[in-house]
Amino acid sequence: MGLNLSSKSYEFDNKTIEDELVDNKIGNYALGYVKENTFYVRYVGRADTCLKERLKDHEHMADDKCKRFKFAYTDSVENAFQKECANFHEYSPALNKIHPDSPNGLDLECPIEDCDNDE
Known about the structure:
By secondary structure, this protein is of the alpha+beta class. 24% of the residues lie in helices and 23% in strands. The protein has three helices and four strands; from the N terminus they run βαββαβα. The radius of gyration is 14 Å and the shape is globular.
């Protein structure tokens, strides 16, 4: 399936986040690192209000295994949740400790078949 995020990865720092992202856009992201031209996923997430600010909130995670990020904007909170769930299940990154929560005010279930999180 794949991340379905930007084909390019970006340096994971505040300046790059500020330069590359626009304010108040919903979206998804992956944190990781590049080795031999391959992006290795370490953490996946979403932003229900502002992707730029959400990435800045994760700056404390920047280390040798989270040096770069990929992102994509989505048109709705529901789509962002579905993409985050798909990425969570496909990549099972070591840094993601819990299954993604349904967005505030919505009672969405994980779209992945056989997911035991909805029980």
